[in-house]
Amino acid sequence: MPSRHITSHDPGVSETDTKQDAEAVFDRVTRRELGISGADFLARWDAGDYEGVDVDDVDGLAEVVGALPFVR
């Protein structure tokens, strides 16, 4: 049985049913807000590129960080 994920606050998305769906939502949000793929964002996040950065100082970063529970 696929694992269930949290309900999205992204307009047009009510719920994700699978890990693949969750990753697609995260990728879409990340591309829309930061212009990079979800995978690229996660690599940068894990490398510490956003450490010490106020999410409100970078346009779209707060939205992407808010979507992290979809993939983490």
From TrEMBL:
Region span, Disordered: 1-21
- Protein's name according to its UniProt entry: Uncharacterized protein
In its UniProt entry, the species of origin is given as Pseudonocardia autotrophica
